[in-house]
TrEMBL record:
Catalytic EC class: oxidoreductase
Signal peptide span: none
Principal location class: cytoplasm
Organism: Aspergillus fumigatiaffinis
Single GO cellular component term: cytoplasm
Single Gene Ontology MF annotation: NAD+ binding
Compartment(s) of residence: Cytoplasm
The name this protein goes by in its record: L-gulonate 3-dehydrogenase
SUPFAM superfamilies per UniProt: 6-phosphogluconate dehydrogenase C-terminal domain-like (SSF48179), NAD(P)-binding Rossmann-fold domains (SSF51735)
Domain 3-hydroxyacyl-CoA dehydrogenase NAD binding intervals: 9-180
UniProt similarity note: Belongs to the 3-hydroxyacyl-CoA dehydrogenase family.
Oligomeric form and interacting partners: Homodimer.
InterPro entries, per database record: 3-OHacyl-CoA_DH (IPR022694), 3-OHacyl-CoA_DH_NAD-bd (IPR006176), 3HC_DH_C (IPR006108), 6-PGluconate_DH-like_C_sf (IPR008927), 6PGD_dom2 (IPR013328), NAD(P)-bd_dom_sf (IPR036291)
Highest rank taxon of the organism: Eukaryota
Length: 308
């Protein structure tokens, strides 16, 4: 599917992910009138204008006023070729939503859910045609980070999978097909596993929140921006690769795995960790985050182009 006048995208939800997806779609659609955002919030127009102006290129600013905004779901999806949902992470909400969307959207429209962890096979339970729904999970913020985890339900049709992958590849993104439904998908499981160990180490007073972040920023962070854990550790093993590395340090690796921290949401660590994080970083600065990530991607792309 290409960026043509016939591509009409409806985004359900104007939260952080929804706005970021709007910025992404806006840079590729033939016309801003082909983008519709539906949300029940009364300040929708103000939120969309204020938030999009912060993250899109200045030359696209005038297009914001041409985006279709509505609180009416039926109206929002009736001519859509793509319906992408980024609503509350609530199973009942999503089941009810997709059943309603299916009633009013065109028969050939693609249905994408940007859920963090609720599989399509649970969301599609109230749909007449369960083959239409697929998870398209972006990594925040999707207008910068190119990853999209494409997670079909067992019922999802191959045509929906193929069309979804093609759509994002044509936009220069990195859609990865996740072959089995699994809680949290892949990127989330990796991120939350690292956060769990980070919480454990801070809670045990091994390091502070700020010190742990500096460890990441000056070691794995830049290394993983260039290569994932398998490639990183493969190079770390020298000529023998990952196998040689494990032969050399496997005992220490196993000891760390055996000693991994176990923490749970809602336990006493939260007050300590939340306090240290607020003290270290004060106000959240999304502009700094976005600038830094863009520069990292530019540097990695430049370096990889030299060796290609």
């Amino acid at each position: 599917m290409s960026s043509s006048p016939e591509t009409r995208v409806t985004l359900i939800g104007a939260g952080t992910i929804g706005i970021s997806l709007a910025a992404l779609h806006l840079t590729h659609l033939h016309s801003p009138e082909s983008l519709t955002i539906v949300d029940t919030r009364p300040d929708l127009a103000v939120v969309v204008k204020d938030q999009l102006n912060k993250i899109i290129p200045k030359q696209l600013g005038p297009q914001i006023s041409k985006i279709n905004l509505t609180t009416n779901l039926t109206h929002a999806v009736k001519e859509a070729t793509i319906v992408q949902e980024s609503g509350p992470e609530d199973l009942y909400f999503k089941q009810s939503l997709w059943a309603e969307v299916e009633k009013h959207a065109p028969r050939n429209a693609l249905f994408w859910t940007s859920t963090t962890g609720i599989p399509a096979s649970l969301q599609n339970r109230s749909m007449q045609d369960k083959s239409r729904l697929i998870v398209v999970h972006p990594f925040n913020p999707p207008h910068i980070l190119p990853l999209l985890e494409i997670v079909p339900a067992p019922e999802t049709s191959q045509s929906v999978i193929d069309a979804t992958l093609a759509f994002w590849r044509n936009r220069g993104r990195q859609p990865i097909l996740i072959r089995k439904e699994v809680k949290g998908f892949v990127a989330g499981r990796l991120a939350w596993a690292l956060l769990r160990e980070a919480v454990h180490l801070v809670n045990e007073d091994v390091v502070t929140v700020e010190e742990l972040d500096r460890i990441m920023e000056n070691s794995m962070g830049p290394r993983w921006a260039y290569a994932g854990p398998f490639k990183s550790f493969h190079t770390g093993g020298g000529p023998g690769g990952l196998e040689a590395l494990m032969k050399n340090v496997g005992g220490s690796v196993q000891a760390c795995w055996d000693d991994a921290g176990r923490v749970n949401i809602g336990e006493d660590w939260e007050q300590k960790i939340f306090y240290q994080t607020r003290e270290a970083y004060k106000e959240v600065d999304l502009d700094e985050r976005d600038r830094a990530m863009r520069r990292i991607f530019d540097a990695v792309a430049e370096e990889k182009s030299r060796s290609s």
